[in-house]
Structures are given as C-alpha cells and as structure tokens.
Cupin domain-containing protein
Amino acid sequence: MSEPLRCREPAVATTQVDDAHVRVTRWDFNPGAETGWHRHGWLYVVVPVTDGTLLVELPGGETMTAELNAGVAYTRLAGVEHNVVNGGTAPLSFVETEVKAWPG
C-alpha cells in the first residue's frame, strides 16, 4: 500500500548569498508549510530566526520533531535527506548556510 498523496504549502526559500564557498538561504514557513524532500550535498549550519517546532520526515517513513530556539545554531553533515515541515501553530524562520568549499 502506498502512502496517500499530501499537498502542503511550500516554505519560502530566499537566497541571500550564493558564491564559490557558501550558499546562505533564509527559509520562511507558515504553519504546516514544508521544504519538500531534499538531500544536502554539503555540510550546513542552521540559525533559527524564531522559536518553533519542526516536524522532520525521514526516509522509510520515520519522523522526528526538533525544537528551534531563536539564535541557537546547529549543524548537520552532508548527505542528510529529509522533508522539513513547520509542526507548530505559528510562522517560523531560519537561515541555513551550506559550506561548499574550504578556502585556504
């Protein structure tokens, strides 16, 4: 049996910097909005702009939640695959910096 089709509002991605070394994207989510399934090709750092609750959908049907605290950064290695959903009742935002290259 396949999973039912879901239709969620997309989160809004605004690229702030995209050069040879980094890509910086601000993500803005209404309640229930999602990034869509994606795999990170580079190590990345996330800095929440607002507090909030993420629902993270993982391969194989697993899910987890993560609490965001404004200004408290976290990092993940390249290769992470997921769909990120605003699991709360208020809008949320974060800035994601993907590290493309290590100069020097």
About this structure: The chain has one domain: 12-99. Residues 21 and 101 are 5 Å apart (CA to CA). Residues 12-99 form a domain with the Jelly Rolls fold (CATH 2.60.120.10).
